[in-house]
Amino acid sequence: MSHTKLSVNVNAIAHLRNRRDLPWPSVVGLSRIALEAGAAGITVHPRPDERHIRRTDVFALQEMLRTDWPGREYNIEGYPTEDFLKLCEAARPDQVTLVPDMPGQNTSDHGWDCVTNQAFLSEVVGRIQGEGMRASIFIDADPTQAAAAALTGTRRIEIYTGPYGHSFDPVEQRARLEEVAVTADAAVKLGMAVNAGHDLTLDNLPPLVKRTPHIAEASIGHAVIADCLVYGMAETVRRYRCALGDSDA
Ligand SMILES: CC(=O)[C@@H](O)[C@H](O)COP(=O)(O)O
Ligand SMILES: NCC(=O)COP(=O)(O)O
Asked: What is the per-residue burial (b if ≥16 Cβ within 10 Å, else e) of 36-58?
């Protein structure tokens, strides 16, 4: 049975490493363990200040995936500046996720307004797809944004799940989940595949994939790396695969 794939976001490993001028914990080494444990891919969000993922990490991961894990997916997220697009064109990930983050922003906290940014996004999506990479547009859980994203020519969106991830009251959580679900349904009807990400956890994944089993991929970083401190990377990946409905985990 098909299930939602897990892409492990390794930003937080790089964050920990960058506390010192030392090469550990190893971003490539821990990504290898995640892949060996069955993660479908690796995600990075190289920010302009290189506070966590550095340009060198982007290429080291690309080399490791290309050489040792050719079937697994490499997903690079970021705001599409010329520098970012050139980095992606050099590293050639499978997927480029376009995120509307300003330089210096603490973390991603909203999706694109695909209506007002229609022309810009259409041009960037065309450029990425023209280079043979998949483009994905990060949007809020809002079906009107899914419709506007479809007009850019993208065949994939990622729904920002922060509001769902941050809600702990059951009524509020159900309402946020419903917004994600109707957005995913609208996107699928428009012929796009759907990713999801931000503040997904072992607790909030099962209701999400039960309500929206057609989510193709979840990219998860902060909670995966936090859980690694308790369970280790391999066991953590196994637990997230189970939470995503992977019966082989
Ligand atoms: C696009 C998105 O939702 C992000 O989760 C992002 O990759 C997280 O970035 P930080 O790890 O810098 O908070
Ligand atoms: N695209 C979302 C992502 O990569 C990870 O977000 P988070 O789990 O670190 O919040």
From this structure: ebbbbbbbbbbbeeeebbbeebb
